[in-house]
Known about the structure:
Blueprint: E1 3-5, H1 18-32, E2 36-44, E3 47-54, H2 57-68, E4 75-83, E5 95-97, H3 104-112, H4 118-124, E6 140-142
Parallel strand pairs: 3-4
Antiparallel strand pairs: 1-4, 2-3, 5-6
Helix pairs in contact: 3-4
Amino acid sequence: MGLLDFAASIGKKLFGTEAEASTVIKKQIEEDNPGIENFQVDVKDGRAVLSGTAKSAEALEKAILIVGNTQGIEKINIDAVSIADGSALRGEDEFYTIEKGDTLWKIAEKAYGNGAQYQKIFEANREVIKDADKIFPGQKIRVPKNL
């Protein structure tokens, strides 16, 4: 699972030029602190290469989503990231890409059979969803398997 795809034309606009992208994205990860240590982000031609140590697979998944849901990022390479607790990523197919007309309630209904569980999805994605009512088509999120 070394290379993940995202839609470069959507997402949160964090940087103006690619020259500043690495610094700005790294700062965003540090501010949201998803359990990353000695972390580096290198961006070139819309591709982000992440390196460092994640405390857990969940922390790495959150960092991936912070980076991938940034406008201008099309691909992420995570081959140089180690996971300290030995856990493994669930795989890119465990990420959900928001579609037109989706709400967190509708996503929870699909995933869990109960829309009222949307809060679990919101909490699992705090780093990339700041407001449960503000999601957008093309955005990737985590949908936790365990309630």
